[in-house]
Automatic annotation (TrEMBL):
UniProt-recorded name of the protein: Ribosomal protein S18 acetylase RimI-like enzyme
Organism: Crossiella cryophila
GO (cellular component) term, any one: ribosome
UniProt keywords, alphabetically: Acyltransferase, Ribonucleoprotein, Ribosomal protein, Transferase
Coiled coil: none
Domain N-acetyltransferase: 115-246
Cited Pfam families: Rv0428c_C
Source organism superkingdom: Bacteria
Single GO MF descriptor: acyltransferase activity, transferring groups other than amino-acyl groups
Length: 246
């Protein structure tokens, strides 16, 4: 990453925040009604003074909310043996993710000139939200409301290419985070994701962003090839550890 002042995990957390956060002995405990692991997990980047007490309080916190206890675990997690500690407590691994970055000029040069250009708005339109919610499977009113609050918690651009492809670009410091890339299954293989990505990067550069970051699931090799061709490289890997409520 081009700056040492912020970890990848913190950067992603600022771009996709929990609706409520509290600190437990240096750990950032995020909650948002169970909508996405990132917004409902612990970002543990400081070693607690009392590890057992911190773990117990986190588990109590999520139990009171009726949610599983979830930790985001990566290279910046503290203590450094947190993954092993959580495994010993019965936490299971879910969603291994690659964190990737690229300078925006590098990515735009790699993407090349696009013949199709998405419409990018500063607020999500009803059509954008409907497509995003349909893709995410969050159709219940409470989930839709929470998702809207998360999406709009930071300045962002919402790209839509003919209702066939969309994504969100969240502005954090001098970065843009790319989230929610989606292409209609009937329109895949036509370069729409590249066009949407390029459109969001141009939009972000016009607003002062110099670098881009994104997260791609380990098993999504198609997306990994797309982002590699756009000049993105993996700078961090993380996963979630989940302890289901009894």
């Amino acid at each position: 990453m081009h700056t040492q002042s912020i970890s990848f995990g913190r950067l992603a957390s600022e771009a996709w925040p929990g609706l409520h956060t509290r600190e437990v002995d240096g750990w950032l405990v995020r909650t948002a009604g169970g909508v996405t692991n990132r917004a409902n997990s612990v970002l543990a980047e400081q070693s607690p003074t009392d590890l057992e007490a911190a773990l117990t309080e986190v588990e109590r916190h999520y139990a009171r909310l009726g949610q599983p206890s979830v930790f985001q675990v990566g290279p910046d997690s503290r203590p450094t043996n947190l993954d092993e500690v959580l495994a010993a407590r019965g936490y299971r691994i879910v969603t291994p993710v690659h964190g990737q970055t690229a300078p925006i000029p590098t990515a735009l040069a790699a993407l090349g000139e696009q013949t199709r250009h998405p419409v990018v708005t500063d607020h999500p339109t009803e059509t954008w939200l409907d497509l995003h919610w349909a893709e995410s499977g969050r159709t219940d009113p409470a989930g839709r409301f929470i998702t809207h609050q998360i999406l709009t918690a930071v300045p962002a651009g919402y790209a839509n290419l003919n209702d066939q492809a969309l994504a969100r670009g969240a502005l954090v410091r001098d970065w843009v985070g790319i989230f929610g890339m989606w292409v209609d299954p009937a329109a895949r293989g036509q370069g729409l994701a590249r066009a949407v990505l390029a459109g969001l990067l141009h939009w972000a550069a016009d607003r002062g962003a110099t670098h881009a970051f994104l997260q791609v699931m380990e098993q999504n090799t198609v997306a990994q090839r797309l982002y590699a061709s756009a000049g993105f490289s993996t700078v961090s890997r993380y996963h979630y550890r989940v302890l289901d409520q009894p």
